[in-house]
Each structure stands twice: as C-alpha cells, then as structure tokens.
Amino acid sequence: MANTHVALLNASFEPLGKVTFQHAVRMLFREVALVEEQHGDRMIGPHPWPRVIRLVRYVAAHWLYRPAGWSRNGVLLRDRHTCAYCGHHATTVDHVLPLSRGGGSTWLNTVAACASCNHRKANRTPAEARLRLRITPFVPTRAKLAAV
Ligand SMILES: [Zn+2]
C-alpha cells in the first residue's frame, strides 16, 4: 500500500498527476490538500486513506506542463530506471544515435540503459548492435517527472 500512488487534483479539480503515497500523506498533514476520494474505511491519523487528493489552494500549473529540461537523471526517471533494451535495472543513459555519429543529448535520442546493454551497443545504432528498443522515447513534462 505504501508503494501506491495517489492522484493529485488542483483546487479546480484539474488533474495534476500523481504523487507517492508518502507525499500525499505529508500534504494532508501539512493541510495543503484534502482527501477527495478515499480508499475503503481505513484511516491514517485523522484522515481517510487517500486515493485522490485535492489541493486546498489553486496552483497555477502551466509551468508543470512545459517540457522538462533534458538531464541524464531525468532520462533515468522518465524510463523508471528500466533498461530500454533488456528491461533490467538501468543506471546509465544511452544515446540511441551515438553522440559520435551526430546524435544529440535530447529526450528523443536518449534512453535509460543497463551498463551491459550500453557497453554492448557502444558506438552503434540499435539495429547495428541487434538491440531492439522496447520503449519509444518521449519528451516528458515537469509534472510527469515530478510524479515518478
Ligand atoms: Zn539492458
């Protein structure tokens, strides 16, 4: 249960994404959010067990929906530390089209990769290395990264 996510709504009921259960509970205790939908009859302190929470005060969310700036850590977060080639735990970032061949450090050209796939792929394209991308890279919003 502690690993589940809780949907977060703006004060206007506009969905803002998801927060971790722990984050949601902290927001309830700081009284910045209220439980909008509860999970069964369970309580956590004075609060119903949250499934959906809603901010008490409206937050202008536009900046959250802008594309996040690229970073290695951001790529690992976006891909949930899962290797794009084999599905194992990823700790490195692979350039799909290698930097040495003109590929850029952009959201669409980078994926999380485990050290062994990254080493195996080296300066080759996935096709040349006979590796298949299991995901389609995308440009995440700040909200998306914040919710991981
Ligand atoms: Zn791998």
In short:
By secondary structure, this protein is α+β, with helices and mostly antiparallel strands. The protein is built from four helices and six strands; from the N terminus they run E-E-H-E-E-H-E-E-H-H.
CATH class label of the largest domain: Mainly Alpha
Number of helices: 4
Which cofactors or ions or other ligands sit in this model?
zinc ion
- The beta-strand count equals 6
Mean pLDDT: 91
Number of domains: 2
CATH architecture of the largest domain: Orthogonal Bundle
CATH topology heading of the largest domain: DNA Binding (I), subunit A
What overall form do the CA principal axes indicate? elongated
Helix amount, in percent?
10-25%
Q: Spell the H/E element sequence.
A: EEHEEHEEHH
Q: What does the radius of gyration come to?
A: 19 Å
Helix/strand structural class:
alpha+beta
Q: Into which percentage range does the β-strand content fall?
A: 25-35%
Low-confidence stretches: none
